[in-house]
Specification:
The chain is mainly α. The protein has one domain. The chain has 5 helices and no strands. The radius of gyration is 16 Å and the shape is flat. 7% of the residues are buried.
Length: 86
Amino acid sequence: MLQKKRKDKTINKETYQLTRVAHVADRCVECGNCYNNCPMNLPLSLYFSSLNEKFKEKFDYCPGDSIEDIPFRSGKAISQMELKRT
């Protein structure tokens, strides 16, 4: 039954890849492994770097700066943001 539901739910490759990129962007520490391993030789590090600048401006968060920093997409960070709004 579960297998049938999964088969009925299809997603195109582009949507999957863009979603995946968005999910890992806030973890980028600019090591270059994404570029080295991309089969299409896409400059993913440039994309991630651009997103990280926006993350820094909006959330005051830079991946890899400190192990004490809470990633802004974590449940704890989201709860703290909601508390600040009220």
